[in-house]
Design goal:
Number of domains: 1
Strand order of the largest sheet: 3-2-1-4-5-6-7
Shape: globular
CATH architecture: 3-Layer(aba) Sandwich
Number of strands: 9
Helix content: 25-40%
Bound molecules: glycinamide ribonucleotide
Length: 200
């Protein structure tokens, strides 16, 4: 299965997927494209080091979301991408991409959805004072982190926890779960039934 990873920043989750493929934990997966909306982002260097094709763009250079998403869609189709993985892509997906990749696009989010959607979910959880937060991988729909949930993992918030320590704990979970979910999808283990996701 050919996948594209979309990322905006550091790309540690992108790297985790690359490692899982290289180590053979993720079988029959080819990372065909990295899509990045921040031309200076570290994730681009990571992709180049692995000789993974990159498409990066600057959204503000386009008249609207539909214009740059059409360009992204062309690249995805050129590469024969079957699954889109949003791994730290900090932008809402518009109808142009959703229409072509509905049920074939997943997102990683650093909270136990539906709590703490949008930006800085880790900071939101700390400020709220919850004792347990976590991570979610879900299918993407038109809303902000609202699509059907595929898998979640808990992370405990201990006393004295800082954004830095919590982010580290969250990332350890993310780096395991994201490749795992991609593997389940590639093996045809995931069935979407309305809002419910079932494991075969
Ligand atoms: C990850 O923690 C991911 O869950 C989060 O961005 C981080 C990217 O880290 N995504 C969101 O907040 C999406 N709303 P990375 O660039 O090191 O993979």
């Amino acid at each position: 299965m050919k996948i594209a990873v979309f990322a905006s920043g550091t790309g540690s989750n992108f790297a985790a997927v690359v490692e899982a493929v290289k180590e053979g934990r993720l079988k029959n997966i080819e990372i065909a494209l990295l899509v990045c909306d921040r031309p200076g982002a570290l994730v681009i260097k990571r992709a180049e080091q692995e000789s993974i094709p990159v498409f990066s763009f600057q959204p503000k250079e386009y008249p609207d979301k539909a214009a740059y998403e059409q360009l992204v869609l062309d690249k995805l189709q050129e590469q024969g991408v079957e699954l889109i993985v949003l791994a730290g892509y900090m932008r809402l997906i518009g109808p142009t991409l959703l229409h072509s990749y509905s049920s074939r696009m997943i997102n990683l989010h650093p909270s136990l959805l539906p709590a703490f959607t949008g930006k800085d979910a880790i900071g939101q959880a700390l400020d709220y004072g919850v004792k347990i937060t976590g991570i979610t991988v879900h299918f993407v729909d038109a809303g902000m982190d609202t699509g059907p949930i595929i898998a979640q993992r808990n992370v405990e918030i201990e006393s004295g926890e800082t954004k830095e320590t919590l982010s580290h704990k969250i990332q350890i979970q993310e780096h395991q779960l994201l490749p795992e979910v991609i593997g389940w999808i590639a093996e045809g283990k995931i069935k979407l039934n309305g809002r419910k996701v079932e494991m075969k």
